[in-house]
Design a protein that fits this description.
By secondary structure, the chain is α+β, with helices and mostly antiparallel strands. Helices cover about 30% and strands about 25% of the residues. It folds into 3 domains: about 210 residues, FAD/NAD(P)-binding domain (3-Layer(bba) Sandwich), CATH 3.50.50; about 130 residues, D-Amino Acid Oxidase, Chain A, domain 2; about 100 residues, 3-Layer(aba) Sandwich (Glutaredoxin). Strands 1, 2, 7, 8, 9, 10, 18 and 19 form an 8-stranded mixed β-sheet that branches. The protein has a 7-stranded mixed β-sheet with strand order 5-4-13-14-15-12-16, sandwiched between helices. It has a 4-stranded mixed β-sheet with strand order 24-23-26-27, with helices on one face.
Length: about 525
């Protein structure tokens, strides 16, 4: 019997396998397609996801695909040859808060790098071109029927746990009757992925995206992919304008692309197209005994927030260490319930943030239709604030409310992502975040003897920071950033979130029952 089977070899399924491997847990990934995607849906990789890629040793590989930073903006324009209104900058300085930063990397590139990494990992078994056709579970296991599409052979497999990262139309969600709540249709779109040389229109104003305002193409967008002269054009279907699914033949797609460029001569090579429905839906439960929903299977976020893939990757980062502790008999099964309670709150916040941006788009298009340029420009300013929000990216706190309108302030309160500080050991500089990966870590000043003694009983690593400590606190900001005195201590979970903190020597460990019982 397998320990964990992961259904879906998209960004979330592959991340789940890597996260489990980081915890020493073997997994099998089942994916129905023969390869990772060839369609770049997501491109906004947020700072927290880049931090996770860094902890998996993938930061540099991912960065080779990122767009140059001067292109991190969205240009509002009539058409590619028409009047330009404004450029909404999408750059924000992460350096005070993180050893890395957000990046614009197309989803197909992200998936390919995750796949390459997973493929080299002896703890990960990848079975592509294999479809899960049925699943059941009992008290001990989940049982699957899978179809190998190369051989057309069916096989039955079982695992102690299933992570269903099988996307927005999750069949696992259906099999186990999990309901979703929210809005199921905020518009249907066609993504047209094509290759074309637009240098003469864009070279002088590199932009991650162009948003079109000319009435007959209003709402269409053109998203660029680094280095390939490849572009993704998005069009909202609209019966009134005779833009229905049937109309989008390959020829129509090519003509539509020429229309937004306003150049009938441009050579457009269609690579593929995809229809998708914008929704804002969250599953009522993420756990059905031994089955866990993750990524789009658990929540469908409007892409207007740029959070879908990021939220999914962070879901499985939250789940993997919990599964590892339970599989290793170091924690009780009830720990697995915290996956839903912690992650659903983040999905809700990210969903409402994304809906608010979808509404902002509506405001923009209504204002344009009325030629109300004041409202149009105000809404765009507001959009810059939306895009450049570090708080939603790094500031989410498990188990407590946080104000999305506030400025991000790093904090080591319980549930928060432990803050980044630069640390030094001999000639090696690391981020405090590099300490948190596959085990609990107690961080404290070398003088915090009480906690070092107490925690020597726990299955955790103790790291002292300060003069004479394991690491020198390069910028002398560790104690302040972590909100502790020289006698205090912070226990950080394997996912980098704070499990426990005592500001001085007088804290108590009672809140900590599941780990102390292990
Ligand atoms: C236009 C657009 C722009 C976006 N921009 C962003 C962005 O900037 N940032 C962001 O974070 N997100 C963005 N998103 C959202 C992002 O694309 C999704 O959230 C992401 O793909 C979800 O990943 P996933 O692994 O959960 O699901 P998927 O990517 O859908 O992967 C699921 C996988 O499961 C496989 N599968 C399904 N059923 C079975 C089965 N029975 N057997 C075997 N395999 C199966 C599928 O083949 C698929 O490969 C955007 C989406 C769109 C449409």
């Amino acid at each position: 019997m397998h320990k964990v089977i992961i259904l879906g070899g998209g960004p979330v399924g592959l991340s789940a396998a890597i996260c489990l491997a980081q915890q020493g847990v073997e997994s099998l990934v089942i994916e129905k397609h023969p390869t990772t995607t060839n369609h770049p849906k997501a491109r906004g990789v947020n700072g927290r996801s880049m931090e996770l890629f860094r902890s998996w040793g993938l930061e540099d590989q991912m960065k080779q695909y990122q767009m140059p930073r001067e292109a991190y903006r969205f240009t509002w324009i009539e058409d590619l040859q028409g009047k330009e209104f404004t450029r909404v900058q999408a750059t924000v300085d992460y350096s005070p808060y993180s050893p890395t930063e957000n990046a614009i990397i197309a989803q197909d590139d992200v998936e390919r790098e995750l796949f390459k990494n997973a493929q080299c990992n002896p703890l990960i078994d990848l079975r592509f071109n294999t479809e899960m056709v049925h699943a059941t579970q009992d008290d001990e296991k989940v049982t699957f029927e899978i179809l190998n599409k190369d051989t057309n052979q069916k096989e039955t497999l079982s695992a102690r746990y299933l992570i269903a990262a099988d996307g927005a139309n999750s069949s696992v969600r259906e099999i186990f009757n999990v309901e979703m709540e929210g809005m199921d249709n905020l518009g249907v779109f066609c993504n047209i992925y094509c290759e074309m040389n637009l240098d003469k229109y864009v070279e002088h104003r590199p932009s991650a995206g162009f948003m079109f305002t000319r009435p007959d193409v209003r709402g269409a967008f053109l998203l660029s992919k680094k280095g390939h002269r490849r572009w993704l054009v998005g069009v909202r279907l609209d019966e009134e304008q005779n833009l229905t699914e049937e109309v989008f033949t390959d020829d129509f797609c090519v003509d539509y692309v020429k229309k937004i460029i306003n150049d009938p001569e441009v050579d457009v090579r269609l690579i593929n197209k995809a229809f998708w429905t914008m929704a804002a839906l969250i599953a009522k439960q993420y756990r059905i005994d031994r089955v866990f929903l993750a990524g789009d299977a658990a929540h469908r976020l409007p892409p207007t927030g740029g959070f879908g893939m990021n939220t999914g990757i962070q879901d499985v980062h939250n789940l993997a260490w919990k599964l590892a502790l339970v599989l290793n008999n170091q924690a009780d099964e009830s720990l697995l319930d915290t996956y839903f309670t912690e992650r659903v709150q983040i999905a809700k916040t990210n969903t409402s943030w994304s809906i608010s941006n979808a509404k902002r788009f509506e405001t923009i298009f209504v204002a344009l239709a009325k030629n109300d340029l004041i409202t149009f420009e105000e809404a765009l300013k507001d959009q810059a604030h939306h895009i450049n929000n570090i708080l939603l990216d790094l500031g989410f706190v498990y188990g407590s409310e946080y104000q999305t309108e506030k400025r991000y302030q790093p904090s080591a309160e319980v549930g928060a992502r432990a803050p980044h500080c630069w640390l030094q050991k001999k000639n090696v500089r690391i981020s405090s975040l590099d300490l948190y990966n596959n085990q609990f870590v107690l961080v404290c000043h070398p003088d915090a003897h009480t906690w070092q003694d107490q925690f020597s009983q726990f299955p955790c690593k103790i790291v002292t920071i300060g003069e004479q400590g394991d690491y020198v606190d390069t910028n002398h900001n560790f104690l302040e950033a972590y909100g502790i005195s020289k006698q205090g201590a912070v226990l950080v979970r394997p996912d980098g979130h704070v499990a426990w903190r005592s500001t001085d020597e007088n804290g108590d460990l009672a809140s900590f029952s599941w780990l102390s019982s292990s």
